Amino acid sequence: QVQLVESGGGLVQAGGSLRLSCAASGSIVSINTMGWYRQAQGKQRELVAAITGDSSINYTDSVKGRFTISSDNAKKTVYLQMNSLKPEDTAVYYCNANLRYTSGGFLRRDRDVWGQGTQVTVSS
Asked: Which among 49, 58, 102 is positioned nearest to 80, based on CA atoms?
């Protein structure tokens, strides 16, 4: 099986910075995309940023210029550097990976796996 373990959330004042990390482990064959989603209270989960295996990057408009996604393919880890944080960035941040892995001797293709979520709270 595959696990995504997140770290780096917390409480920060507006204008501050946080760095989230997400490490994938397990019987991984290849990773198509890794990314970060967030879900604020009472709202739907939304994509924040994603990076593909060939380093193509996508950001939601509200974080462009403030957040930076990066990855270490050897460590199967994705990072989200969040600068100039705003109260509206407050949410539970979830790591997501779309990948191929083996399970029970079978290849599982292009499956989505989620982390447990980490709380980011930005105070005004």
From this structure: 49
| Dihedral angle computed from the Cα positions of residues 93, 94, 96 and 102, in that order, rounded to the nearest 10 degrees | 150
**34: Cβ contacts below 8 Å, ≥ 6 apart:** 22, 24, 50, 51, 71, 78, 95, 96, 97, 98
Sign of the torsion formed by the C-alpha atoms of 83, 38, 68 and 95: positive
Q: What are 35-76's pLDDT values in tens digits?
A: 999 999 999 999 999 999 888 999 999 999 999 999 998 999
Q: Are 91 and 60 in contact (CB under 8 A)?
A: no
Q: Can you read off the two tokens belonging to residue 3? A: 């696990």
How far apart are the C-alpha atoms of 65 and 52, rounded to whole Å? 19
CA 77 to chain centre: 9
> By C-alpha distance, which of 108, 78, 100 is closest to 32?
100
CA-to-CA distance for 62 and 41, rounded, in angstroms?
17
